[in-house]
Amino acid sequence: MHLKDPVKKILLFLVVTILILLALVVLFRNAILTAAVETGVTMLTGFKTEVESLRLDPPGTLEIRGLKIHNPSSFENPVFADIPEIFVQVDVGEILRRDRAHFYYIRLNVAEVNVEKTRNGISNVSMLSSVGGKGAPEEKKETPAEKTVEKAA
Question: DSSP letter string over 63-130?
Answer without folding.
Answer: EEEEEEEEPPTTSSSSEEEEEEEEEEEE-HHHHHHSSS--EEEEEEE--EE---B-TTS-BHHHH---
